[in-house]
Amino acid sequence: MTQTGSPLSTQRAEPAQPVSDAALIALDWGTTSLRAYLFDANGAVLETRASTAGIMNLPRPAAEGGFDAAFDAAVGAWLDRSPELPVIAAGMVGSAQGWKEAPYVNTPASADALVDGIVRVQTARGVPLNIVPGVLQNGELPNVMRGEETQIFGALACADASGADASGTAASAANKGVLIGLPGTHAKWVMVRDAKIERFHTFMTGEVFAALTEHTILGRTMVTPDRPDTDAFLRGVRVARDRGQAGVLATIFSTRTLGLTAQLTREQQPDYLSGLLIGHELGGLEAALAQRQSTLAGRSLQLIGNEALCERYRLALERFGCHRAELVRHATERGLWRIAAQAGLVSAASGAARAT
Amino acid sequence: MTQTGSPLSTQRAEPAQPVSDAALIALDWGTTSLRAYLFDANGAVLETRASTAGIMNLPRPAAEGGFDAAFDAAVGAWLDRSPELPVIAAGMVGSAQGWKEAPYVNTPASADALVDGIVRVQTARGVPLNIVPGVLQNGELPNVMRGEETQIFGALACADASGADASGTAASAANKGVLIGLPGTHAKWVMVRDAKIERFHTFMTGEVFAALTEHTILGRTMVTPDRPDTDAFLRGVRVARDRGQAGVLATIFSTRTLGLTAQLTREQQPDYLSGLLIGHELGGLEAALAQRQSTLAGRSLQLIGNEALCERYRLALERFGCHRAELVRHATERGLWRIAAQAGLVSAASGAARAT
């Protein structure tokens, strides 16, 4: 969950009258952002609010009530109108640096296991906040997620609700393996089988891109283009795929040397580097799949995240022979609704959250 | 050439009397440091000076005489005593951002080609500065070096002068292929054949390590240990070698997750990450060698650079089956001396530079 919200903003004008059919408040509370959803009893989103009050960016220190302050600023108006609303949250708010730690659930992790792992914290205004735990894949190289588990069950809820979709991935959600990609700061690639998060990889692609462009020599010759340069991006993907044997530590230097030899303009360099990194990520994913006699080519998969970024991944995936990458929208709010319903916070009969 | 000098310092007390037998001043002038050597007519180093006045760190802007100011501060005292001394420089001082650009020499690059490419700039005090060019390997993924070419010919000069050494690498320098590693900010791995720089790779290992530890989430849980933790380092090398299929963008996240699961202390994390990156670098080098039916295992090679860092690489190389990695000392000053001699700046009869 890496969306960054604008400073506290309301996506819809607040109605003058109490929202009589509000049924749930849900929070996607990450490191650098907080997004709040107000649901009706059918799982439709009535209002959303977004702020930059992530757990590392609270309005005041945690020890001085920073979490309560951020919570009140985000959803206080809704609770003033409807004080009895249940509230659920997912993301880094449940980490050791969050409001209260919700210990990781181990893989293979089902939605029921997440519900069982919910931790409650009492807010200053008396409302309990239900925090969804993250997921841990233990072993020699452990992997963790917080927030993505909720998005994944949201994507599965979407597939369950819609029946078999055009690409045939939905029907497989319940029992066959589904591969879900969540591009972003720490990109996740998650294998879901039998409605459980079975295993996953984390690629620090987004954060490494930022560190390279802002804090290494590669950024010094770059100029941000007016609009993304898809050709430069795909050139980077191709180099990573076809010429990437020496690894990403080697290929990234070509961002500079292609500039020095007048083969890449300053404006092309950011997208070329982005293509290199995403190409190496997909090459690494391909190598991990190969260890299980699987491949990206010919596979259907789902993408969750920022639409423009997911479109980049879709183009890159085509270069790896994967032509069926489907963008799942509203996975976050659907997942929050689904887990709240499964936890009995709202009537389960209401079914899957509906997109607004 | 990535050594960082302390603020202007003289390694030996300056003699009260003129140095009557001084024959050459040579500069290793990089991005963040400047190192100066005063040679006698036999190629022995009489004095050295070091400063942080790299080309990106001049005492005043280049347009306001910054290069002359740094030059005078570094070697003015030597030139006051012996105004006729020839002066040679290698490194980023010959780049487009340097004092005067010395265009790259293409691979395969011999010492003669470097001499032919020397560019002269007139200093404010009237002494000409001879700048050694860098080397360019052109192609789809170009590669460049500035400074390392001089160190490499210094290492070969050492091998030529000493005859066959214990590991047998020296005799091969003239005609067979020699692999030379130069660990650092931008690590280079260079294949030399027939006394020419034939091809090379650049791995941004050192700069990526700095960016990851200083500007990503990985650094937040790290504590610098009192002394390097070799076990943690070798654990990282092993993970990269045996479990690195998904690539470095994936494995680096384990620095964090092994911490979260109490399998790696905060003090172990920096060395573990260093091992991961160097392990991936060597894995990438191994893959590049494999494309030419070669391998690291069983090979002899030479290392040039910071001794502690080269020792890390030597330990890591052993994990790749390479047990004959020889540290070449004084490659920089030997290379500067050799190229100056070959350029006729000093008497060629003096032979190879001697280590101090």
Description:
The structure is a homodimer of 356-residue chains. Helices cover 36% and strands 21% of the residues of chain A. The first copy, chain A, starts with 8 loop residues before the first strand and ends in a 14-residue tail after the last helix. In chain A, helix 7 (230-243) packs across helix 10 (269-290). Chain A is an alpha/beta fold. In chain A, the strands form three sheets. In chain A, strands 1-4-3-2-5-9-8 form a seven-stranded mixed sheet, sandwiched between helices. In chain A, strands 7-14-13-12-15-16 form a six-stranded mixed sheet, with helices on both faces. The first copy, chain A, folds into two domains: 9-168 and 331-350, 2-keto-3-deoxy-galactonokinase, substrate binding domain (Nucleotidyltransferase, domain 5), CATH 3.30.420; 205-327, 2-Layer Sandwich (Nucleotidyltransferase, domain 5), CATH 3.30.420.310. Chains A and B meet through strand 14, helix 5, helix 8, helix 9 and helix 10 of A and strand 14, helix 5, helix 8, helix 9 and helix 10 of B.
